[in-house]
Task: inverse folding
């Protein structure tokens, strides 16, 4: 009985890790896309009232 609980906890932890790793990969891809848009000048950013 105790081993089943441990196995369940570990399985759930593995699933959570997989989800977090996918979320991280998605965020890294989004950052890459946003940086590309900013660096190509397609989007202007205001800093202290001036376009940068």
Result:
């Amino acid at each position: 009985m105790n081993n089943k609980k441990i196995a369940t906890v570990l399985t759930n932890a593995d699933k959570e890790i997989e989800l977090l790793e996918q979320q991280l990969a998605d965020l890294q891809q989004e950052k890459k896309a946003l940086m590309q848009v900013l660096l190509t000048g397609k989007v202007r950013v205001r800093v202290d009232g001036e376009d940068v």
Notes: The chain has one domain: 2-51.
